[in-house]
Design goal:
about 70% helix; mainly alpha; about 0% strand; single chain; globular
Length: about 140
């Protein structure tokens, strides 16, 4: 029996899209109620939605798709970590003074959402490139 490395069925992508829509709706709902943009709440919805989208099976789930997903996730993790680090350093803590200020950082949900969005976009780009190469 062959074990699949992606735990969700293909239709879990629909659940992921619904979670993302609910997260975006909740984000704007909170803005209208409180007048504050809560990007952590938005990041929670995006994170959960992209977990279901990225880690669900594809219609044709073979070794190539798994390889492309791994490559996309590995690349997105390195890129997201680097961008997050630079953003934290240059934009959130550029005027930090030791002993007086508190170190600021984006939340784990924001990092996860950014990483999974990047990985999903890069995976579909790689998949598109593979279909172009197969057609030649």
């Amino acid at each position: 029996m062959r074990r699949n490395s992606f735990p969700y069925s293909y239709w879990a992508k629909i659940l992921g899209v619904l979670i993302i829509i609910a997260g975006i709706f909740s984000f704007f709902q909170q803005y209208h109620k409180k007048g504050v943009y809560d990007f952590n709440e938005l990041a929670v919805g995006l994170s959960w939605g992209f977990v279901f989208i990225f880690f669900s099976k594809e219609k044709t789930d073979d070794e190539m798709v798994r390889s492309l997903k791994f490559k996309a996730l590995a690349t997105a993790l390195i890129a997201s970590f680097s961008i997050t680090h630079l953003y934290n350093y240059f934009f959130l803590n550029w005027h930090f003074e030791r002993g007086r200020d508190v170190i600021l950082s984006i939340s784990a949900y924001q990092f996860l959402a950014f990483t999974l969005m990047t990985a999903t976009a890069y995976f579909y780009y790689l998949k598109y490139q593979m279909t172009l190469n197969e057609g030649e």
